[in-house]
Design goal:
The complex is a heterodimer of chains A (477) and B (125). With 477 residues, chain A is α/β, with parallel strands linked by helices. Chain A has 2 domains: 78-325, Type I PLP-dependent aspartate aminotransferase-like (Major domain) (Aspartate Aminotransferase, domain 2); 335-461, Alpha-Beta Complex (Aspartate Aminotransferase, domain 1). Helix content of chain A is 39%, strand content 10%. Chain A has helices at 43-56, 77-83, 86-89, 101-118, 130-147, 165-172, 190-196, 219-228, 261-264, 283-286, 316-352, 373-379, 383-391, 420-439, 441-445, 458-463, 471-476; strands at residues 122-124, 155-159, 176-180, 201-207, 232-236, 256-258, 279-281, 292-295, 298-301, 368-371, 399-400, 409-412. Chain A has a 7-stranded mixed β-sheet with strand order 1-7-6-5-4-2-3, with helices on both faces. A 3-stranded antiparallel β-sheet of chain A has the order 10-12-11, with helices on one face. The longest helix of chain A is centred in the last third of the chain and has 37 residues, at 316-352. Chain A is globular, with a radius of gyration of 25 Å. Chain B has 125 residues and is of the alpha+beta class. In chain B, the strands form 2 sheets. Chain B has a 6-stranded antiparallel β-sheet with strand order 1-2-3-9-8-5. In chain B, strands 4-6-7 form a 3-stranded antiparallel β-sheet. Chain B has helices at residues 29-35, 82-85, 88-92, 114-124, and strands at residues 8-9, 14-19, 22-27, 38-42, 49-50, 55-61, 65-69, 73-79, 100-106. Helix content of chain B is 22%, strand content 38%. In chain B, strand 2 (14-19) and strand 3 (22-27) form a beta hairpin. The longest helix of chain B is centred in the last third of the chain and has 11 residues, at 114-124. Classes of the chains: A alpha/beta (477), B alpha+beta (125). At the A-B interface, helix 16 of A face loops of B. Chain A: Keywords: Oxidoreductase, Pyridoxal phosphate.
Chain lengths: 477, 125
């Protein structure tokens, strides 16, 4: 399809601005030498362009989207209605606090509710996404050790099943990353953990349930060992959806956490964002919380704050959506959604594991990981091929090749918002693809055939990316 | 291109060529095949100290980023800068596309000869 610049016709445009009828005198120096290359296009052509783009993309509104570890749940429309209320949209962060009382109440209520759900004492909404929440949490850990003069703690321990953001955030915060192994059950290897704990340990970062969809059965022992060594325990809330309302990170030994409002709490997710990755902590860390805060209707700042990690108070309208979601579900509904998320994942796992071997054959949490290693070896059909074949069934592929500890991994997370019919349809698609792998593996390797774009040249795009549009080329033609 | 028969191998699929007291390190055909088409390479800098068993750099395919484990401790004297612009060389010619040259070599990991490595790969596959 054409780029918007390729649809441009000189002189065509839109009459949004009237002709300027006052004399404008600008100094020479800041003026451009020539006009910018903006597309010239009529309003109806512009509308068609973006409608066409929208048709070529795919989202939760188009169909099942079981992208593992991403919690692509339905975002209830009432969230959008609340976030559009003028009292929430026509405000400014520099307004006096007593003129935005409804808004400060949203922040206070959401903070208290999320603290209750997670077992934390305090929380900041500044971080704009999960990885920034991790970074903030690590800075709290760093500030804590520093405040005690305990500056030899240079290492953050992270299991090999972790999301890539964990080691990246730790490195950004100035820590050395120590990777520990998972055992044959997909849990943290306790001996390996013990071997790496010591006076150099600043903390542990853990996602629980972890990225293979399993709740670590030794969690109490793990957090005890880390505390005994003088480290703090960081809970990555990426997979909170499996345990929300049932297990509180604060009750199982965690000192600091982040949440992804855009995953667990049904706010827009993906390119559409913006995200929100609030960072919660226990009382003894609250003095270090970042930047500007709203507490009990007042603007304030933590005593020994690490400083701002973004501007102002966070992505406020995302917070409005998350609070709407929580109030819609209520205290009885929240644990129910975790149970349904786990039930849906187990239902799919059970219905597929005779054909697609699961990496860890046990009851899973909110997601499960299949390994197509044997299928790949025997039929030369890879996890990528199966992911592409699902597109022809109108299903967004699961997460591929993650976690790294599972070969030819496909990671499926149905979420609680899908019905049994949708799951059955996806199970049928998986089983039909398996039959095709046996009968005509080449056809699976050639999929998708029904999408606007077939196989992408990912290697070519990564090796020789075209990152800008060349106007000079267009004129030469 | 180095003769695969003459090289030494680590169990993490790097090859080592001995050039007097110095060594040249690359990754094996099995490694490049398992990783798939490589799109990016991170190399150490000249003068960097390598530690046996720790990452000397990493390679990125469309699937994942994987560490390249240094089979020896020592000091980097030269890096193959061509790989930075053309990571596909590693897929095309794994035994020619060397990563680093290392001097002051000490503390080498347990290495296999060509036959032992072949056997090791067959067992792993």
């Amino acid at each position: 399809m054409k780029l918007i610049f390729e649809r441009s016709v000189p002189g065509r445009g839109q009459d949004i601005f009237p002709e300027c009828d006052v004399e404008v005198k600008l100094p020479e120096s800041p003026l451009r030498e020539k006009a910018p290359n903006l597309p010239e296009i009529s309003e109806n052509e512009l509308g068609r362009h973006y409608t066409k783009l929208a048709r070529a993309s795919r989202g939760v509104n188009d169909g099942f989207y079981p992208l593992g570890s991403c919690t692509m749940k339905h975002n209830p429309r009432i969230n959008e209605v609340m976030a559009s209320l003028p009292g929430f949209t026509r405000i400014h962060p520099l307004q006096p606090a007593d003129t935005v009382k409804g808004c400060t109440e949203v922040v206070d209520t959401l903070r208290k509710t999320l603290c209750e759900i997670t077992g934390m004492d305090d929380m900041t909404f500044q971080p704009a996404a999960g990885a920034q929440g991790e970074f903030t949490g690590l800075l709290l850990i760093k500030a804590y050790h520093k405040s005690r003069g305990d500056e030899g703690r240079k290492e953050i321990i992270i299991p090999d099943s972790a999301h890539g953001t964990n080691p990246a955030s730790a490195a950004m915060a100035g820590y050395d990353v120590v990777v520990i192994k998972s055992n044959e059950k997909g849990m943290i290897d306790l001996d390996d953990l013990k071997a790496h704990l010591g006076p150099q340990t600043a903390g542990l970062m853990l996602t629980n349930p972890n990225t293979v969809g399993l709740f670590d059965e030794n969690i109490l022992e793990i957090t005890r060992l880390v505390h005994e060594a003088g480290g703090l325990c960081y809970y990555d809330g990426a997979n909170l959806n499996a345990v929300i309302g049932i297990v509180r990170p604060g009750d199982i030994g965690f000192d600091v956490i982040h949440l992804n409002l855009h995953k667990t709490f049904s706010t827009p997710h993906g390119g559409g964002g913006p995200g929100s990755g609030p960072c919660g902590c226990k009382d003894f860390l609250a003095q270090f919380l970042p930047g500007k805060r709203v507490v009990n209707g007042e603007y304030t700042q933590a005593e020994n704050s690490i400083g701002c990690v973004t501007g102002f108070y966070g992505n406020f309208l995302v917070m409005v959506r998350a609070l709407t979601f929580l109030l819609t579900n209520g205290s009885d509904g929240v644990p129910e959604l975790a149970k349904n998320a786990v039930l849906n994942a187990n239902y799919m796992q059970e219905k597929l594991k005779d054909l697609y071997p699961v990496a860890y054959d046990t009851t899973c949490m909110h997601e499960f990981v299949m390994s197509l290693e044997s299928i790949h070896k025997e039929k030369n059909v890879s996890a990528l091929d199966v992911a592409k074949a699902l597109l022809d069934f109108g299903i967004h592929p699961p997460t591929m090749y993650f976690p790294l500890i599972v070969d030819e991994a496909l990671m499926v997370e149905p979420t609680e918002t899908e019905s049994r019919e949708v799951l059955d349809n996806a199970i049928e698609a998986f089983r039909a693809i398996y039959k095709k792998i046996i009968d005509s593996p080449a056809a699976v390797a050639a999929s998708p055939v029904t999408t606007p774009i077939k196989r992408l040249d990912e290697v070519g795009a990564a090796r020789h990316p075209i990152l800008k549009y060349d106007f000079s080329q267009e004129k030469a033609e | 291109m180095y003769d695969p028969k003459e090289l030494k191998y680590s169990k993490s699929h790097e090859w080592v060529h001995y050039d007097g007291d110095d060594v040249i390190i690359g990754i094996t055909d099995y490694a490049q095949d398992s990783l798939g088409d490589l799109v990016f390479v991170n190399l150490p800098e000249v003068e960097d100290e390598l530690t046996a068993g720790e990452a000397l750099g990493d390679v990125e395919s469309v699937k994942a980023v994987s560490d390249i484990i240094s089979p020896v401790s020592g000091k980097v004297t030269e890096i193959n800068e061509e790989l930075l612009d053309s990571p596909e060389k590693i897929n095309e010619d794994p035994y020619g596309a060397w990563f680093v040259k290392v001097t002051d070599v000490e503390d080498t990991e347990e290495l296999l000869d060509a036959d032992e490595y072949d056997k090791f790969v067959k067992e792993e596959a």
